[in-house]
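Support request, priority: normal
Reporter: lab tech (M.K.)
Component: structure prediction queue

Hi team, I submitted a job for Type II toxin-antitoxin system RelB/DinJ family antitoxin from Dorea acetigenes yesterday, and the status page still shows it as pending. I've pasted the exact input below so you can check whether something in the sequence is tripping the parser. The sequence length should be 90 residues. Please let me know if I need to resubmit or if it's stuck on your end.
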Amino acid sequence: MAKEATLQVRMDADLKEKAEALYRELGTSFAEAVRIFAKQSVLENGMPFVISANHKNTYGRLSKYADLVRREQEEGAFEKAMVEKYEKAD
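Reply from support: The job had stalled in the queue. We restarted it manually and it finished. Here are the results:
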């Protein structure tokens, strides 16, 4: 599959360096890890890891970054898009 789109993400420089070092140690690149994340998200039709409110697991560590307003705005967005898609097809 050709790589023909570019994704730019702003993040803390220290975080970027640590992530790049981690993925080098794992034998891949940060960019490849992002591609894997995107591919797995599409395959699973969601986040490719379990999300919960327990602060001892992945979601708990990520929850402090959640934008509650955006989550409310996006609630049901997939379902709404599917309804619109199939209503237009009729």
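The chain has one domain: 13-89. The mean pLDDT is 82. Let us know if anything else looks off. Ticket resolved.
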